[in-house]
Write a sequence for this structure.
């Protein structure tokens, strides 16, 4: 039973970490801000859900589990809203979006 | 168990390094804000992995505060870009 939980934790956390790495590669490779946002908004929900599900299997006290649930729920509420506001801010000035500050 | 979680942490560290380099090196303010947004998500993932690795609950407090601050950051930067047109 315990070994089974360990294996599930390992699989979920490794999957979440690999999703985060792929998203980071996308953030580096995609040049436009909105293209980069396509890659950047994936780990904010999917990775955190996978890693949270993996971590919750290793916790034993109810207070810790509920705190982790609050973190994942908060991330699910705030990350899309923040990304949406950022996208609206970026789109509102498409004229100046091609000059870069190196 | 421990070794694979450490491997996951190093994968997350590589991802964080990539997004940090994107945020520092080039781009408009919007692109940098997108990279910082992804960076905070990856740091939260790392804190949750550390919780699974050590069993310490105080990593979760850090993750909670970081999630709130990340939301405030992206909203503030978005309002700033919208107002100033940067």
């Amino acid at each position: 039973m315990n070994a089974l939980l360990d294996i599930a934790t390992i699989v979920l956390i490794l999957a979440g970490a690999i999703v985060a790495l792929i998203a980071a590669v996308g953030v580096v490779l995609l040049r436009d801000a909105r293209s980069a946002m396509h890659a950047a908004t994936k780990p904010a929900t999917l990775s955190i859900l996978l890693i949270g599900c993996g971590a919750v299997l290793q916790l034993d006290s109810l207070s810790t589990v509920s705190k982790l649930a609050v973190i994942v729920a908060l991330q699910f509420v705030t990350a899309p809203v923040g990304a949406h506001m950022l996208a609206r801010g970026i789109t509102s000035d498409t004229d100046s979006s091609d000059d870069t500050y190196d | 168990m421990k070794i694979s979680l450490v491997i996951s942490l190093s994968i997350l560290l590589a991802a964080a390094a990539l997004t940090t380099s994107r945020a520092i090196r080039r781009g408009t303010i919007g692109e940098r804000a997108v990279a910082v947004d992804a960076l905070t998500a990856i740091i939260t993932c790392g804190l949750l992995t550390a919780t699974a690795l050590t069993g310490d609950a105080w990593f979760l407090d850090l993750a909670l505060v970081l999630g709130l601050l990340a939301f405030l950051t992206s909203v503030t930067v978005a309002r700033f870009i919208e107002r100033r047109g940067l």
